[in-house]
Amino acid sequence: MYWKAYQENPDHILFLKYETMRADPLPYVKRLAQFMGYGFTAEEEKKGVVEKVVNVCSFETLKNLEVNEGEKIRDDIPRVVYPNSAYFRKGKVGDWQNYLTQEMAARIDGLMQEKFKCSGLLEHDI
């Protein structure tokens, strides 16, 4: 389990929460780059390179790439029957409420509690 490995050696595994990154992506892009050994230089930060990376990698930019628009099917994986556009909805925190009923959400929450109880993962602010 990655959580156990993280607890044993936190410098080798990075956990990021979508909701947190979505709210303020700049520090997390910097953190990810540093974690991967490619931190931004002071000059790059001054020139706005971090902001440019955030923009290029944003949900909106990726969703609107030609390859992800419409009903294009991946040719490299013949078993996949979903168009690339199916992997993008709105990218909004909390949008799950438009797709899951309260009962479904409660079931998922229950499964998470059951599977991860006593792990510390659900209580840890990563």
From TrEMBL:
InterPro entries linked to this entry: P-loop_NTPase (IPR027417), Sulfotransferase_dom (IPR000863)
E.C. numbers: 2.8.2.-
SUPFAM superfamilies associated with the record: P-loop containing nucleoside triphosphate hydrolases (SSF52540)
Keyword field: Transferase
Residues in Sulfotransferase domain copies: 2-118
Alphabetized Pfam families for the sequence: Sulfotransfer_1
Family classification: Belongs to the sulfotransferase 1 family.
UniProt-recorded name of the protein: Sulfotransferase
Protein's organism: Camelina sativa (False flax)
